[in-house]
Amino acid sequence: MSLEGLKKVVFHTPSGTYEVGRGDNGATDVEFKDLDGALNDVWGSDIKQATYKGSAKTSATVTVNGISLPLLGEIVGWKKTSDNVYVPQNDAKLPVVGLLAITHLFNTNMDRCVFIPSANATYTKLSLKTNTDKKNLATVAIDFSAIQDDKLGGLSGFKDVPSGDASSVYTLLGWDEPKQDIEAGADNGTVADKAQ
Asked: Cα–Cα distances in Å, from 57 out to 6, 54, 169, 189?
């Protein structure tokens, strides 16, 4: 069954659950790695005798071009100063956050949810480009490293749900229904600001 692109991305933070959407004002790419353990061969007397699966080292990189600064800061554990400056912290205890990516199953009325319920995250890349021929948006890359989730009993999970309704996944993970993150710079602040 074919998967049809990225529908939306949801982040879970200590203050709540937030959707960033997709495309020109949201997530543009999510890449999961090492969702399952690598296969390792056991050899003896030049004969392959067995294969075993090593531990998964699940991670993901999310590329976004529309995320508020307060939400980004909360995901990666930045310190917010009294002057509203967000400062990366090298020695800070990282918050436990979650990631959910939703894609559509082509020619069906179903979506596939891929999720990492518990992870630590870091802000790894800011890409700023100028092109006079077409509009280029700045992109931000956030890396997630999964940690064992006791409720799920693993690092990551997959679930097919009716198209447009991931409520069963939110319930499974113990997350609230996501609020829309408001792009930084809005006069009324952001959802993440209001949740603090």
From this structure: 23, 9, 22, 36
Which spans in 45-177 are helix H? 69-76, 167-173
Alpha-carbon distance of 147 to 120, in angstroms, equals: 7
Pairing mode, strands 97-105 and 59-64: unpaired
Report the C-alpha gap between 99 and 64 in whole angstroms. Answer: 13
Residues 152 and 51: their CA atoms lie apart, in Å, by 26
d(CA 178, CA 187): 21
Give the span between the Cα atoms of 98 and 186, in whole angstroms: 25
Tokens (6 digits) for 92: 């800070």
Tell me which of 6-15, 162-171, 179-188 is least confident.
179-188
- Residue 45 CB neighbours (<10 A): 5
Per-residue pLDDT tens over the stretch 69-128? 999 999 999 999 999 999 998 877 899 999 999 999 998 999 999 999 999 999 988 888
138 Cα distance to chain centroid? 18
